[in-house]
Amino acid sequence: MALVKSGWLWRQSSILRRWKRNWFVLYLDGSLVYYHDETQRDMDGRIHIKYSCRDVRTGRECRDVQPPEGKSRDCLLTVVLRDGSKTTLCAESEDDAVAWKMAVLEAKSTPVRLHPPKSGAPSPPFCLAAPGVTHVIVREDPYRVSGDQMALGLLAGAATGAALGSFMWMPCWF
């Protein structure tokens, strides 16, 4: 999916309210994904901005939140979700917090249409569009598991279990 913004942000945990530094990636489809580090191997979480974001607040609008030690309140960023929960973040600077807010609002409001490639189309498929149209380059989500992949994995596991004489897969047969 097309990348809108990425970078380091501090994230406040929901239970103990401790601050943790994560690598955040915002995609044009509205996925705000955060990882343990910038290698993007270990995903810590995901927020679907298009579907679950109600509001984005920065700086003094973030009431009842203490920023991490050494950071200003102006660096705060709060994503208010439709279910009433909040994700509180802290950028490195006030300008960075405003940039993240603008990027999140852009990803929230930008319509994304996915068209499957036509058979026989050149790779990548080329299309003509009017000026001002957002072009999106789509790639497969590495964390998405389709039904046929899951079924194939279960079948392979069952075959391995049967070959080894394991009864671990026994409940799958009933």
TrEMBL record:
<keyword id="KW-0472">Membrane</keyword>
<keyword id="KW-0812">Transmembrane</keyword>
<dbReference type="InterPro" id="IPR001849">
    <property type="entry name" value="PH_domain"/>
</dbReference>
<keyword id="KW-1133">Transmembrane helix</keyword>
<dbReference type="Pfam" id="PF00169">
    <property type="entry name" value="PH"/>
</dbReference>
<feature type="transmembrane region" description="Helical">
    <location>
        <begin position="151"/>
        <end position="170"/>
    </location>
</feature>
<dbReference type="GO" id="GO:0045595">
    <property type="term" value="P:regulation of cell differentiation"/>
</dbReference>
<protein>
    <submittedName>
        <fullName>PKHB1 protein</fullName>
    </submittedName>
</protein>
<dbReference type="GO" id="GO:0016020">
    <property type="term" value="C:membrane"/>
</dbReference>
<dbReference type="InterPro" id="IPR011993">
    <property type="entry name" value="PH-like_dom_sf"/>
</dbReference>
<feature type="domain" description="PH">
    <location>
        <begin position="2"/>
        <end position="109"/>
    </location>
</feature>
<dbReference type="InterPro" id="IPR039680">
    <property type="entry name" value="PLEKHB1/2"/>
</dbReference>
